[in-house]
Amino acid sequence: MSSPDIAAILDQSKELDRLRKDQEEILLEINKMHKKLQSTPEVVEKPGDNSLSRLKMLYIQAKDLSESEVAVSSQLLSQLDALIPSGPPGQQRRRMEGNEQKKKRMKADPDVPRLSPSVRNHLDILASLKGEQVAARVTQENADKDEWFIVKVIHFERETREFEVLDEEPGDDEEPAGQRKYKLPMSHIIPFPKRNDPSTAQDFPPGKHVLAVYPGTTALYKATVVNTRKRKTDDYVLEFDDDEEDGSLPQRHVPFHKVVALPEGHRQ
After folding, report:
1. End-to-end CA, the chain
2. Rounded CA gap, 192 and 80, in Å?
3. At what angle do helices 51-83 and 117-127 cross, to 10 degrees?
4. CB 252 within 8 A of CB 242
5. Does this model's pTM top 0.70?
6. How far apart (Å, rounded) are the C-alpha atoms in residues 45 and 15?
7. What pLDDT, on a 0 to 100 scale, did the predictor assign at position 169?
8. Is residue 27 within a helix (H) or strand (E), and if so which, with residue range?
9. Contact predicate 211/261, CB 8 Å
10. In 112-230, which ranges are E strands?
11. What's the CA gap between 45 and 38, in Å, rounded?
């Protein structure tokens, strides 16, 4: 594991920690509002009272923070998957056999919870991505290069931890129906920042490598950030790898909600 790999994971971990602290603060505010409404429910009927509007805003903030946590957690999973060796077949088989024994013991003992509350909450958040567009790696682990496309989440299967997604605009060489479905693990999915909430987007510095949607397509490619954005809503100015024109790389504008962190171990 190289120093840049460790630094990238630590940066993502710090961001995850910040998001969770922000969520704790929002939950405290929500609990205060709940107690207020439980003790004096008649307050909402008073002219000018904004208790319900305030509560709705807090719920929206909590939801946005949870979705940001999913994005960062998915990125961390991708980074760790790229660094953890799969191990020899025999070792992998023994690990799988051990997992099967654990599952049998869990089923036999009704007092053992199958999922912790935090894991259940994380799975709920992943399931909430249904209908959303995300970045998906559609190539297998042993492929020569990674291919990433914009896809629509159809379903998240909790048992297998797999996403069923739809590529709504495949290339001309794809199947005649015009659309293609994939079943992909969590590590192959990266949620996009929210178009209507720039705070969910990471702020990448100049020189940073990212994964971005190439203008006019539904495919994502490796690119380099050219300059610092002045506002959160500004487009990123990027130079895409292998996009040379007349001996130089053209600078292309890409909306912030179509740019994500470059996965560790990305192959192109």
Report:
1. 20
2. 20
3. 100
4. no
5. no
6. 40
7. 78
8. helix 3-39
9. yes
10. 133-137, 148-157, 162-167, 180-185, 189-191, 209-213, 219-225
11. 14
DSSP 161: T
Average pLDDT in the 209-217 region? Answer: 95
pLDDT digits (tens, 9 = 90+) for 30-83: 877 777 777 777 776 777 677 777 777 777 877 777 777 888 787 777 777 666
Report the half-sphere exposure of 3 (CA within 13 A, side-chain side): 0
Question: What is the CA angle 253-255-257, rounded to 5?
Answer: 150
DSSP one-letter string for 59-128: HHHHHHHHHHHHHHHHHHHHHHHHHS----HHHHHHHHHHHHHHHHHHHH-TTS-SS-HHHHHHHHHHHT
Strands 148-157 and 162-167: antiparallel
Return the minimum-mean-pLDDT range out of 42-56, 58-72, 142-156, 192-206: 42-56
Instruction: Convert 130-152 to b/e letters by CB count within 10 Å (16 or more is b).
Output: eeebbbbbbeeeeeeebebbbbb
